[in-house]
Amino acid sequence: MKIAVLDWYTVNINGDIPTSQLEELGEVKVIPLTPPEKTAENIGDADIVLCNKVLITKEVMDACPNIKYVGLFATGYNNVDVDYAAEKGITVCNAGQYSTNAVAQQVFAYILDHSSRIRDYDNAVKNGEWERSPSFSYFPVPTLELAGKTLSIIGYGSIGQKVAEIGNAFGMNIIASSRTKRDCPYRWADTDTAVREADFLTFHCPLTEQTKGMINAELLGKMKSSAILINTSRGGVVNEKELADALNSKKIAGAYLDVLEKEPMSPDTPLKNAENCVITPHTAWAPFETRKRLVDIVCGNIRAWMDGSPVNKVN
Fold this sequence. Notes:
Layout: E1 2-5, H1 20-23, E2 27-30, H2 39-43, E3 48-51, H3 58-63, E4 69-72, H4 82-87, E5 91-93, H5 100-116, H6 118-126, E6 150-154, H7 158-169, E7 173-177, E8 187-188, H8 191-197, E9 200-203, H9 217-222, E10 228-231, H10 240-248, E11 254-257, E12 277-279, H11 288-306
Parallel strand pairs: 1-2, 1-3, 3-4, 4-5, 6-7, 6-9, 7-8, 9-10, 10-11, 11-12
């Protein structure tokens, strides 16, 4: 089997994950990044295509008739025309739930950053403010206890459930809300209630026609002025102009974002210089252990397909 890996750089930017596991499965061609106009050329006569964000369109599949399998280094598969792949008998498999622990961890890195103000106090110490303090303890910047605060979770899949579990361990009041109600040991509420009552509002929903732009002026207007918004789901869930306006007018206290509508970030995004807005460059999924697990899942998917019993099949 010939395997074309189209954007290995997106998984292995630091070169810390070897390709040896992939090489056990076939003849591997590794391309760091593939521009759209080079997709068909880089696939060539490969039987198996592996990618993260590269678009695998009808035109690409028609131009590469040897493709039998598309494997995704991701949970989302909106970059692949799965319906046309099914028509052509091409199996498409994703990698679900590989990043649950890492994303939930980052959500709480944000929550703790806001609550404990470690960066602010480290800067104060380094600027000599503690040295000049008349008291042994110097705390001009307000901090918060998480116990008793309300954590509202929009989207109660595996990541939402892990976030709830961690929040519960901190003694937070958990509100869960999702399109489909699941078994849940915490309070369940509609989105409107979850938004209004949240001290911390975190989103873990897929990007669909229903969720696109749902974080907008109307939703933000329902939040407490002291509330913090967190988005580690998909950038398109946010109307960036309306979130920036809410931050700059202090309608909410702050936002932490790991995803934006356009990635890499556009220099003219209104959120770049918005007040009290912390942006990380889509890193929540990226710890070494998480990426290694991702590659393990992708390789396991290929082995299962080769054995005639595909798993994580999306078409």
